[in-house]
Amino acid sequence: MILLTGGAGYIGSHVCIALLDAGFDVAVVDNLCNSNKASLERVQSICGRSPVFRHADIRDEAAIYDILQACGVTAVIHLAGLKAVGESNVRPMAYYENNVQGTMRLVSAMKRAGVKTLVFSSSATVYGVPAYLPLDEKHPLGPTNPYGRTKFFIEEMLKDLYKSDDDWRIGILRYFNPAGAHESGFIGEDPLGVPNNLLPLVSQVAAGRREKLLVYGSDYDTPDGTGIRDFIHVVDLASGHLSALCHLAQPGLLTANLGTGNGNSVLEVVRTFEAVSGKAIPYEIGQRREGDVAICYADPTFAKQALGWSSARSLEQMCADHWRWQLRNPDGYRGILLPNVRETVQA
Ligand code: NAD
Ligand code: UD1
């Protein structure tokens, strides 16, 4: 049995499918602070079986210990956390408490229960401003906001834990920019309020829920002047967790980028989304967003060598799958699942 923390969330629900499809039993722990349990009902429709669900907080060490024992957990994939950069600047202590203290409690419960295999969701944000590109795992770390620093401190903590006891099997996965949705259109990203990230915003403009996209700067030193990122399909990202889990059959600590190695600009994303949706996406060029870098993309070589993992899906597929999710679920998990509208998705 694999314990998946944050398993009702955007990435977690896709990891849950990858695990169930691979034949694992899964227990999800989530406090639902940024998710909806309906995601797991949808997971059941896709996979034909469901994870065990426990509504609990990772900071509740006793509850986590009970779940580890009662479910016979052998490994933990830890995604639970707060993730909004802007909010982390305003409420830094909430981020340290939830993310850092939450991970400390989780690890403490795991130690007591004798479960020593852990895959952790880190982020490319730990690299900060790129000193060179593509970003490989040896690039110096220097996160520029509290959210990024929680990921950095957790990484350091896990490295110290491994140094103190090399029975641990720890995989630190640094995600680049997750995008897209499961191809069924049953599950996807369901941001509460105004989304922070590019794809959900573009998709809401295409759907007519927003008038236009504000492009944060067109004066970067890039071919079209807009920012470049490494967008990775969430289903590819999910499969990276399985590869990491298999790799951790041996004790060790591994840190790997999960990215495609390709960079796409904001305007390339807009044009691709227009092509797959057949909808115009009006945009306006605005000021640069504070804290943004011009270009960020991964060197995915190490993940390929060490885990035998690489991404397979294109930007077209990310946009098409995101659009299908948007069309089928105009109100996210709070609404009903509409029938498939295949002819309106071009990829
Ligand atoms: P998400 O908000 O959809 O999922 C996180 C889940 O964790 C949510 O279901 C939330 O309810 C749960 N959670 C939060 N705090 C909890 C706690 N104390 N106890 C129990 N459950 C708790 O976000 P996501 O995009 O799926 O991200 C998953 C992980 O990946 C996060 O750790 C995030 O920092 C990391 N990450 C995400 C991105 C991204 O762009 N989505 C990029 C890099 C890293
Ligand atoms: C952001 C976070 C990063 C996190 C990542 C994935 C910041 C500073 N960084 O990175 O920590 O790991 O999300 O969750 O928030 N853009 C627009 N208009 C918009 C929204 C975005 O032009 O309305 C542009 C941005 O300037 C950027 C690109 O789109 O060039 C991608 O933005 P976003 O999806 O927010 O991801 P990141 O900035 O890479």
Automatic annotation (TrEMBL):
Q: Say if the entry is tagged with keyword Membrane.
A: no
Q: What EC number(s) does the entry state?
A: 5.1.3.2
Quote the catalytic activity from the record: UDP-alpha-D-glucose = UDP-alpha-D-galactose
Subunit details for this protein?
Answer: Homodimer.
Name the UniProt key words of this record, in alphabetical order.
Carbohydrate metabolism, Isomerase, NAD
Name the enzyme's class: isomerase
The keyword Lipid metabolism is annotated on this UniProt entry: no
Please list the cofactors this protein needs. NAD(+)
Q: Name one GO molecular function term.
A: UDP-glucose 4-epimerase activity
Q: Which gene encodes it?
A: galE
Put simply, this protein is called UDP-glucose 4-epimerase
Give the family, as the similarity comment puts it.
Belongs to the NAD(P)-dependent epimerase/dehydratase family.
Which NCBIfam families does this UniProt record tie to the protein? galE, PRK10675.1
Task: Give the matching Gene3D superfamilies.
Answer: NAD(P)-binding Rossmann-like Domain, UDP-galactose 4-epimerase, domain 1
Q: Where is the NAD(P)-binding domain?
A: 3-321
Q: Name one Pfam family in it.
A: GDP_Man_Dehyd
Tell me the route in metabolism or biology where this protein functions: Carbohydrate metabolism; galactose metabolism
